[in-house]
Amino acid sequence: METYATALLYAIPFFVVLLTIEIGYGYFVKNQMHKVMDTVSSISSGLTNIIKDTLGLALIVVSYPFLLEHLAITEIKTSWLVWLIAFVVIDFAGYWNHRLSHKVNIFWNQHVIHHSSEEFNLACALRQPISNLIGYFSLLLIPAAVLGVPHVVIAVLAPIHLFAQFWYHTRHINKMGWLEYVLVTPSQHRVHHAINPEYIDKNLGQVLCIWDRMFGTFQEELEEVPPQYGVLKPAATWNPILINFQHLLRIMKDAWYTRSYWDKIRIWFMPTGWRPKDVKEAYPIEIITDVYHFKRYAPQATLGIKLYSIFQMAFSLFLMMFMFYNYVEIGFDGLLWFSGFIFVGIYGYTTLMDRKEYAVWIEVGRGLAGILWVWYSGDFFGLNNYLPHASIWISAYFLLTIIGGVYFTYLEQGRKGRMEQLADKELSKDGRVEIG
Ligand SMILES: [Zn+2]
Ligand SMILES: [Zn+2]
């Protein structure tokens, strides 16, 4: 997957620039569409997805070259026509894959992360899965294989097609005239991310909107129905790794607890959200019914933890970029360890953002592991070759992680907790509030 890593090296700065422009613009026009914790969570999700995909950690059911070899009835020479055909086939396949992800219980698990943000902005586009562990997409490219579209064309177009879905995740661009009839636009994709009954599961196209118009899933954004973003069963965490498996866990629990053997099997392939009757009654799950009045996820977030989360995210991004630049030198085993560090890091600081007390164990644990790693190997995956005194800097980072973990778990919250207690006492003295 080195080619994908290279493509990302070019794409990531592009994403960063566009994101900065969106945040800056929102600030400038006093209509900020970003919330710090949500955006940090979204970008962190992007990091997990990129790392997982570049490592190629998926079971490929069937590869495109294999299909090409066995199914091609003709061979079109590489010309502008072949690129056009390939793009249309990829987009068509993308539409059906997306539709499958929305409509079938088990497939929804790998897509729910993309919809889990209760905001809608460019960062939300980066919420991409790590739970897509079975690679079946090539099966949807059979039309391209039959037409003999060369593998290199698919390999080049696939990431471009993916990155072309970034720009329309914004609330700053209104309807776009005649383009609304050809392309998926911000307005159409706002509808797609909305949980309003009028909008849910609509506009499944990826680059072209013609498929939605052809197959009856198109819905225009209506002025009287402002889109409300999120998922009907809220994720209620900033931890992108957890969000990737929440739905799977719910299906597994239902399959385990239901008494019907038929339901144990069919639950996986039923429409998204379907549950066996007995477990539905025994273990009800709350879903959002009033989309205009639900409480969005927002655990206590001080300026301190906001800045700290941004720092941790930025450092993870830096580590990832370093990893891509040294993809070959680090070697596969090294890459696994390196990504392990980044993953545990993301798990740790997002759990800290969730204000979960066990975050401190993860943060202290990974801090110590990092320091020990540098201590024993005298380096951190070759970082010393790039940065003078890198060992010291990276050890300082891991030390800071330990301190941050302890501070934001016990001290900051403890201080705030004490202040709240004091305030409560003051109020009760005044007789305004009774403490029961
Ligand atoms: Zn979707
Ligand atoms: Zn989207």
Which SSEs are present, and which pair or pack?
Elements: H1 2-28, H2 36-55, E1 59-60, H3 64-71, H4 80-103, H5 105-108, H6 112-115, E2 134-135, H7 142-146, H8 151-163, H9 186-193, H10 210-215, H11 240-257, H12 261-266, H13 277-282, H14 303-325, H15 327-353, H16 359-377, H17 390-430
Parallel strand pairs: 1-2
Helix pairs in contact: 2-14, 2-15, 4-8, 14-15, 15-16, 16-17
Give structural notes:
The protein is mostly helical and 436 residues long. 59% of the residues lie in helices and 1% in strands. A two-stranded parallel ribbon has the order 1-2. The protein binds zinc ion (2 copies). One zinc ion is lined by residues 114, 125, 169, 189, 193.
Provide a concise account of the structure shown.
The chain is mainly alpha-helical and 436 residues long. The chain is built from 17 helices and two strands.
Percent of residues in helices comes to 55-70%
Low-pLDDT runs of 5+ residues are 426-436
Calculate Rg over CA atoms.
24 Å
Characterize the largest beta sheet: strand count, sense, and whether it forms a barrel: 2 strands, parallel
**End-to-end CA span:** 61 Å
Strand content: under 5%
Helix tally equals 17
Strand order of the largest sheet: 1-2
| Estimated structural class | mainly alpha
Average of pLDDT = 91
What pattern of helices and strands is seen along the backbone? HHEHHHHEHHHHHHHHHHH
Q: Which overall shape is indicated by the principal axes computed on the Cα atoms? A: globular
Q: What ligands can be seen in this structure?
A: zinc ion
- Strand tally, please? 2
